[in-house]
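yo, GNAT family N-acetyltransferase is done. seq:
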Amino acid sequence: MTWTITPEPVDSPDAVALWRAYYTEVSDRWYLLHEGRTTDPAELEREIAADTGRDLAVLLVARYDGTAAGTAGVRLTSDAATAELTRVFLLPALRGTGGAARLVTAAEAAARDLGAGRMILDTRSDLVEARTLYARLGYAETPAHNTDPYAEHWFSKRLV
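structure:
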């Protein structure tokens, strides 16, 4: 079983399907934790349509034995020396196989290729797996770098 990771347009069928899976999971986890319900279907559709990913400098799609299995996005900030890691997602059935670490490492390489010397990201408290992954890969928790209402933890890593 092998992993491949390649850049892909954000509107490719695989990228769109993975974005839907990602957003559904993180939204449902938030609503279940805070309101005891899953995401309202109409709200889910609005939010998925509103965030097309067109602001990403690169979207990476990971495939496991040829099947689309995960994503990681890189967005350049207003300070071009800093990139933001976003949309890190791996299908639940493939978690624990090393795909997430490969995606983040590939996103770091893409950010370096774009001229960034630092990667930042934010995540939530309930996304324990993500926080563990980032710490394992050398990301340090930092003060807030944005005011995203869902962000509860901010991380940074030097890339050079």
